[in-house]
Amino acid sequence: MPTKTFDESKIRRNTDGTFADKDKHHAPNELPSISAHDQPVGDRFTQSMYSIAEELFDHKQDWDDLPAGGCYRLNEWGDYVAEDEWDRIWQDRDLERKAWMGVTNEWFDPEDLPNMTPHEIEAAYDDDDLSPDVSFYTEKHEDDIEDTKGTDADQAMREANRSYADMDLEHHTAHRTTR
Fold first, then answer.
1. Which stretch of 15-24, 66-75, 104-113 has the lowest confidence by average pLDDT?
2. Beta strand 136-140 pairing with 80-82
3. Which pairs count as long-range contacts for 41-47, CB under 8 Å and 24+ apart, including other chains?
4. Band (166; pLDDT cuts 50, 70, 90)
5. Which of 95, 105, 115, 96 lies closest to 53 in space, CA to CA?
6. 35: Cβ–Cβ under 8 A, 6 or more apart, which residues?
7. In whole angstroms, what is the distance from residue 103 CA to residue 112 CA?
8. Are 135 and 100 in contact (CB under 8 A)?
9. I need a labelling partner for 126 at 20 to 30 A (CA). Which of 18, 134, 141, 160 fits?
10. How far is 68 from 125, CA to CA, in rounded Å?
């Protein structure tokens, strides 16, 4: 059985020894390479995102306990985290932050996240038609702090109810006098 040998004379090379571009045996790959930006993020990314978000909840505060300044609302139950904690926890994890906000705001289904690409996550996050219900930035001002220091929650509720009752009474009284 004859053995095949490699005949180097049949392969064209450039003067520097590299294969020539037109070499039929070693033609360059003309298919575009797939970047990591076009690959699904996967389960490992999703687990990492949730682990990072758990750190937020380790630093959560009620509105009344927050210092004045920037903060983020974490959920619909009124848990907040100060802006500096938010920034520290999400530092260098921008895609994870966008994915978590997309999941918590129901811009996409959490079960779909592992199959989404970074491009799809960022597109959902940047969609102007979507607005956050939770996980959004807000600010607490000094007057908010003064209001919470000077007012007991039960007392505030009683005052609010009394003012509504007074408005209701005024409305009924005005309605009777016009008849």
1. 15-24
2. unpaired
3. 41/95, 41/99, 41/113, 41/114, 41/116, 41/117, 41/118, 41/121, 42/114, 43/114, 45/95, 45/96, 45/99, 45/113, 45/114, 46/99, 46/110, 46/113, 46/114
4. very low
5. 96
6. none
7. 10
8. yes
9. 141
10. 27
